[in-house]
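$ run holo --ligand "flavin-adenine dinucleotide" --emit tokens
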Amino acid sequence: MIEKFYDVIVVGAGPAGTTAARFAAEQGVSVLILEKDRDIGYPVRCGEAVSKDGIEPFIKPDSKWIASTINSFVLISPDGTEVKINFNRTGYILERRIFDYELGKLAAKAGAHILTKAYVYDLLREDGKITGVKFEHNGEKKEVKGKIIIGADGVESRIGRFAGIKTHIKISDMECCVQFTVSNINVDASTCYFYFGENYAPGGYLWIFPKGNNSANVGLGIGGDKAKIKSPISYINNFLENKFPNVPKLTMISGGVPCSLTLSEIVKENVLLVGDAARQVNPLSGGGITSGMIGGSIAGELAGKAIKENNFKLLMDYPKIWHSRVGRRHEMYYKVKNAIYNFRDETLNSIAHSAIKIPESERTLLSIFKIALLDKPSLLFEFAKIFFY
Amino acid sequence: MLLIEIKPDKCDFCGVCVGVCPEDAIELKEATIKISEELCTNCAKCVWCCPIEVLVFRKDKIQQLKASTFK
Ligand SMILES: Cc1cc2nc3c(=O)[nH]c(=O)nc-3n(C[C@H](O)[C@H](O)[C@H](O)COP(=O)(O)OP(=O)(O)OC[C@H]3O[C@@H](n4cnc5c(N)ncnc54)[C@H](O)[C@@H]3O)c2cc1C
Ligand code: SF4
Ligand code: SF4
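-- output --
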């Protein structure tokens, strides 16, 4: 049963939405989450890689949703040069269908109501003000009122559009992805593999993230302007046929990662956008789980406070807080992404050749990045600007 | 005339097309996809970005359209 009225309505039950809901509910206000799918956490459109440090502030690591623990990366250049990097922190490959569920339970425990199979198709307006949402549930059209609406509707980001925010992104910023979860694959269970180059994933990368028991997520993302020429599905099929011709494929998903800057407008009137919907993904790595949870936590907490203190001006602080905590760093990553986006195979190979000369103990992503910088001196300047502001 | 053809049986309902559509012409529910003929401008961005070739740009329809307007 859901009520007719809530203080905060969250649309979308991904990590950003459930975290926003939890942080709002913890302020003692009433919260409803509407999710269009029948199941929270499924289908899993994700490589499932996170860093331990990234998720710990939001949820205590639990073996039931950790598929494997990662301590090294291998970067593979177009000519096959393998650059191994010891990850000096801990990474996890998640079991997101369980992880997302647990985040949902945490929100529920804090008091949030949850309704699945609830597709939000518009905002409710009265006297020109946004007063709730319209949704379809089991084929019936319904309405629910809310003082604050949080759009956590992922890559589609239509809630923002309903509120009048331009949320669509340019195609070269959309990483178009396909991923198979495969079994019987012989890869190291504590290493993430990344393949770069024209043949693997132009304007992106191909990944193998091990999930233990010889299974792994094998996927890739390429920029939309590259997908226009050849589709992601044909790249991944090529790769699997060549490298792992006989692995059984347990699942296949498609998906998109909005690797753009965060939208310039993430709050409008009483509508806030969080996670992929706000374009809060790390535009260089395409990782959006932790940054979505950060965005969600900021927005959720502000929404709760705004209701409690009956001061909606507080919502206007959201972009500023996001920007100082994460957004500014993402601006730098976005510049780096754009600089390397069109790197040619020869450049990638020469970076790899230089990188393997660095002793393994000193090899870090940063030291490799410095080599990449030599190919693109203008980046140094951008870097300096960010660090010395 | 809508020049984008959807192969609904192939669709994974992932939302990439919705995320790049400048006109907000695509509606995606849990397992249905619909393009609004009224809103769509046939810009083809959705076709280019669909990772698994669900959407097709029907060039042949342009020919049809031309043929019918010059009749
Ligand atoms: C192939 C792929 C691999 C990735 N790999 C990684 C990775 O390894 N590490 C990482 O950190 N990130 C990764 N990402 C990114 C990560 O998955 C997202 O950033 C993350 O899921 C964003 O969380 P979110 O809560 O913002 O949105 P989502 O998790 O997308 O959740 C949005 C929810 O909103 C619902 N919804 C949408 N519209 C409506 C509506 N109108 N009404 C009701 N509900 C609606 C959707 O059904 C969905 O459940 C990957 C993404 C892809 C596509
Ligand atoms: S991008 Fe392709 S697979 Fe994804 S929802 Fe659109 S048509 Fe379907
Ligand atoms: S062709 Fe362009 S306007 Fe039409 S649905 Fe696709 S992206 Fe939207």
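-- notes --
Chain A touches chain B at residues 36-38, 43, 45, 117, 119, 121, 136, 154-158, 161, 167-171, 174, 176-178, 224-225, 227-228, 231-233, 252-256, 258 (CB under 8 Å).
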